[in-house]
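S.,

Sequence below, as promised.
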Amino acid sequence: MQRAVLIMLVAMSLIPVGDSAGKILTSGLGVEPVFVAWSRFALGTVLVLPFLPKGSFALLGNWRIWVRATMLCCGITCIQFALRTVDIATVFAAFFIGPMFSYVLATLFLREHVTVLRSVLILLGFGGVLLVVRPGTGGDADVLWAVAAGLFYGAFLTMSRWLSHLGKPLSLTFTQLAISMFLLLPFGLTHLPEASLPIASMTLASALFSMLGNLLLLFAYGLAPATRLAPLVYFQLIAAVLLGWVLFNTLPDAFTWAGLALIIGAGLASTRLR
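The prediction came back faster than expected:
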């Protein structure tokens, strides 16, 4: 269990590192967000190809696999637009509307069990997201890109539960990367940045750290029960705050701190329920 926890903590740190590299590309180096999203999927596809289980390509013939990948494609693209102007901690806090939306979708479409207490905690977490976004009160409008990303990701999570029986985790990871790369190909190629060492290194870092984080996440879930590891997902928010402070010299304001506390508190309490 200790090994799984350590791997999970590393995974939850690497994913925000990948997004920090993406933020440097879009906000500091002038790279278009759609190129960052496409390059992440393209490089990720190349990285997983040598490790594919047999039968992975056959999954590409299933229309449900394409819908699932499209949800992730839209989510990652939206989050790159958010990172262009919004600090990374705020983006991640707004993005965490995803698990809450997934709960609603799973209740409606997968007929998963609903409890009053869990529903109350979901509403509290949603209140935390509202504190971060602050619609109509002068907050950064670009944070709505992060909310959209979270909604797409919530749909992706629900579809992942629905389709988990179709293939091994690495096979499903390959399909979401390859399909997203294909869908964004015209946009990626028409928004190629100038060739430079900083852009190349940050593009590689964005893809590599995100890929490593998600692969380690799958590996951790193979070593320990999901219910034991689920609370550690919220370590992403802590890592995002630290990275924002170290790399961009930004810290959340009071409303965002309150929102973060609500999101993490409600999320941790939800994972303790049976």
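The CA atoms of residues 4 and 220 lie 5 Å apart.

Coffee later?
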